[in-house]
Specification:
It is built from one helix and seven strands; from the N terminus they run αβββββββ. With 219 residues, the chain is an alpha+beta fold. The chain has one domain.
């Protein structure tokens, strides 16, 4: 007798293929987690950028202040006369004789990048500067002062002699060597020593630099 094969009938609600996918709840949870992660990363990046800009701004401000201090010390260290400050204290001006530059020809007064081996302050070109003779060189001055024209941004300016002319009392226009200054004060602590105080503010914190310059040409 032939055997009749048995057939298993599947219920109508049973499916033979697997269906893959996410439920709506799972999608919403994934979106929420992604948003939290992205927001956190954005805040970290924003804080890092803000910190970088703050540090960079402070470094620029301090760098400019240090450069200004070094420049004043350079001139003060070679000056043979100090007009300001005198006996008064905390003067907002430093005016000293200029004995640094050699950038012009002393005869033609033409600019010379390599100079002519004579200091520009040697007005008569005899190789001596500010000598005490019958015809001494007239002192040429370099002046550092605080410009308060802009109430929101005081500037430290430098005024140099104009060596491009034969006149001995003319100067170049003032040039800014440091801004964001909140205080500038000079004191004569000894006949040959000048104390310089410079305070700048980068918008977050005040920074004060202080130094003393000793002239090797003053007694």
């Amino acid at each position: 007798m032939d055997k009749i094969p048995c057939m298993r009938l599947l219920p109508q609600n049973e499916r033979t293929d697997a269906v893959c996918g996410l439920t709506l709840i799972e999608v919403l949870v994934a979106v929420a987690l992604t948003s939290i992660i992205v927001t956190g990363l954005y805040q970290v990046l924003a804080n890092a950028m803000m910190t970088y800009e703050t540090v960079n701004s402070r470094q620029d401000t301090i760098g400019a202040a240090r450069a200004a201090m070094e420049r004043m010390v350079m001139f003060a260290g070679r000056a043979d006369a100090v007009e300001t400050p005198g006996s008064e204290m905390n003067v907002e001006t430093l005016k000293i004789s200029e004995r640094v530059y050699d950038m012009y020809d002393n005869t033609s007064h033409a600019f010379a990048a390599d100079g002519d081996r004579k200091m520009d302050a040697d007005n008569d070109g005899d190789g001596l500067i500010n000598e005490d003779t019958a015809n001494p060189d007239i002192l040429e001055w370099v002046e550092f002062t605080l410009d308060k024209t802009d109430a929101g941004n005081w500037r430290l300016t430098e005024t140099l002699p104009d060596y491009s002319t034969a006149d001995v009392d003319d100067t170049l226009p003032p040039s800014v060597i440091c801004d964001r200054v909140t205080a500038f004060a000079c004191n004569r602590v000894a006949p040959d020593v000048v104390e310089i105080n410079l305070t700048v503010d980068d918008g977050e914190q005040g920074i004060t630099l202080k130094t003393r310059a000793k002239s090797r040409w003053l007694p």
